[in-house]
Amino acid sequence: MALRRLAGNLVSAVRPLSCLQLARNYRAAVLTEFGRPLQVQDLEPKALAPDEVRVAVYNCGVNASDILTCQGVYENLPNLPFVPGFEFSGEVLEVGSEVTAVQKGGRVIGLQSSGSGGFAEQIVTTAADLFPVDNSLEFEAGAALADTYATALLGLQRRAALQKGDTVMVTAAAGGLGLAAVDLAANVFKCQVIAVCGTEDKASLVREKGAFAALGFHREHLKKKVRDVTGLKGIKVIFDAVGGEVFEEAIKCVAHEGKVIVAGFASRTVPHVATSSLLPRSFSLIGLSLRHYREADNAVFRQAVLDSIELYESGLIAPHISAQYPLEQVNEALSFISERKSTGKVLLDIR
Ligand SMILES: NC(=O)c1ccc[n+]([C@@H]2O[C@H](COP(=O)([O-])OP(=O)(O)OC[C@H]3O[C@@H](n4cnc5c(N)ncnc54)[C@H](OP(=O)(O)O)[C@@H]3O)[C@@H](O)[C@H]2O)c1
Predict the structure, then answer these.
(1) What's the rounded Cα separation, in Å, for the pair 127 and 159?
(2) Cα separation of 326 and 333, whole Å?
(3) Rounded to whole angstroms, how far apart are CA atoms 49 and 72?
(4) Please, are residues 168 and 237 in contact by the beta-carbon 8 Å criterion?
(5) What gap in Å lies between CA 283 and CA 320, rounded to an integer?
(6) What confidence tens digit (pLDDT) does each residue in 37-88 have?
(7) Which of 65, 111, 155, 202 is the most buried (most CB within 10 A)?
């Protein structure tokens, strides 16, 4: 009897504590005005809806689209105040009453599709935006894999049908997306990768990742340099996330029946191509957007992320992380990328 009372007291002592834990304010980097620095603020947690999940964020990827959103120049700008950060890893803190796909305490990778993001100690999301992973998968890798590798995988495998031994040119090859494309093309598809990047340090990195040639970008010489290193008339698949004049020069290197993947515009210049220029070499231009795959074909989107996780777990690919910043230095993290100092991924370390 006394034991039962003691047990009852313990349960009632524990319950209010865990509620208190969830009710405790959490820190988040908040965008209050487009074009202004983020501010780290204390926010109050909201109660979960039945289909929602609360995740303790341990690492969050800092991506080009976060920068564009903060600057107010991205598609579908959010209402302010807003917490950016759509790519994160962490542990499930709490699940809504209808959620069965993830459990409290489980380790997850997340790609937030809408609402407040992961530049924060906590994020509220839905199971549809989460990917449960083994406890052996490091949080850092978890926040550095999904966006870039799933995008590159969709582009190279599904859209360009890359084959072993093909020649592949990757521009912005030391950036987050480019390095994932180099890694996949060289180490998974066993292709001959020619990387284009900005500095000698970046060239060393992409060679280490598996590129057999790393070229600096020079407007007049790209085509000749490619011919010099490959001895070939053209490149089978070109993966471009720069746009602008880099794209214009890169497509001059495409082979007969080659494919050019249009994955992004790091230069912020959208090139315009005369369709007549596609005819002499019968080449294809291929658009690619992971974000839009998520809406248009969710099964393909989820499979690309799951495949990326599996490739990582089997040791075939390895995301490169050039810097990690604490939440308080989130603005430094954004500048590090904007100033083209980063290679591969940049993360926030929020633990
Ligand atoms: N299609 C999709 O689903 C998808 C997914 C992820 C990202 N993206 C897009 O892909 C692009 C690259 O993303 P990311 O994550 O790889 O970015 P990132 O890590 O910042 O890398 C971009 C790289 O672009 C190169 N670059 C060349 N010309 C540039 C210029 N004029 N201004 C700035 N950078 C220039 C830089 O490398 P060098 O200094 O070596 O030239 C830079 O490191 C972005 O536009 C992003 O929005 C698209």
Answers:
(1) 27
(2) 9
(3) 29
(4) yes
(5) 32
(6) 999 999 999 999 999 999 999 999 999 999 999 999 998 899 999 999 999 9
(7) 155
> How far is residue 144's CA from residue 345's CA, in Å, rounded to a whole number?
6
Q: What are phi and psi of 333, to 5 degrees?
A: -60, -45
CA of 137 to the centre of ligand 1 (A): 26
Atom of ligand 1 nearest to the CA of 291: 3
Q: Which residue, judged by its Cα, is nearest atom 25 of ligand 1? A: 172
Q: What is the pLDDT of residue 22?
A: 52
Q: Is the pTM of this model over 0.90?
A: yes
User: Going by C-beta distance under 8 Å and a sequence separation of 6 or more, which residues neighbour residue 254?
Assistant: 234, 235, 238, 260, 281, 283
Ligand 1, atom nearest to 344 Cα: 19
Greatest Cα-to-Cα distance within the chain, rounded to the nearest angstrom: 90
From the list 288, 216, 225, 284, the residue with the least C-alpha distance to 253 is 225
Beta carbons within 10 angstroms of residue 265's beta carbon: 18
- The domains of the chain, with CATH numbers, are 2-137+320-349 (3.90.180.10), 148-292 (3.40.50.720)
* Ligand 1 center to 243 CA (angstroms): 9
Residue with tokens 């609402």: 115
pLDDT tens for residues 125-163? 999 999 999 999 999 999 999 999 999 999 999 999 999
Q: Which of 106, 62, 115 is nearest to 87 (CA)?
A: 62
pLDDT at 226: 87
